Description:
Chain A contains no helices and eleven strands. Chain A has strands spanning about 5, 10-15, 20-25, 30-35, 45-50, 55, 60-65, 70-75, 85-90, 95-100, 105-109. In chain A, a hairpin with a 2-residue loop joins strand 6 (about 55) and strand 7. Chain B is mainly beta. Classes of the chains: A mainly beta, B mainly beta.
Amino acid sequence: GQNIDQPTEMTATEGAIVQINCTYQTSGFNGLFWYQQHAGEAPTFLSYNVLDGLEEKGRFSSFLSRSKGYSYLLLKELQMKDSASYLCAVMDSNYQLIWGAGTKLIIKP
Amino acid sequence: ETGVTQTPRHLVMGMTNKKSLKCEQHLGHNAMYWYKQSAKKPLELMFVYNFKEQTENNSVPSRFSPECPNSSHLFLHLHTLQPEDSALYLCASSQEREGPDTQYFGPGTRLTVL
């Protein structure tokens, strides 16, 4: 079957760095997406990786290793507004998104 | 308005009621999706429409009935729901169904079935 694993919850301190991991097993691979979802709001697109390596976008970076079925989202200089759930999703061979259950990130002052 | 909008944002209904959820996208996309999001569970894909044609129905009970009159609008008609159907219902759109296109989400409808 298809499976996406990510930690349920993480806590970090304002100004620090946090890494959210995601491992996957899917039928085919057409890229990996990260979304941010604040409570009661829409998931918003953060990043897309289809090739191995690191993609940097401001304070956020996303890494992919296809051979290991592994990705991480790196958040630097954490701000209180980064408190949210972070969703990892893999697009399979049918271009369907397979979702993880999300990681709730709590930022403490 | 821009992006993907959904109405209503909150809905409380009894098990015998009939209601409809509405989604509208202003992005010029061709594919639209309904997802169910329950607490601490992955998003569950319910239905997919591509150019107004339904391309996927992921074994969704018949008490959920989708409708897509054009590429910009998507409805989810609800009747005789069960309490376990209480969840956040999210609509999304993407440029194409077949392709690594980013899906853009609406804010969702928080549904409570009593």
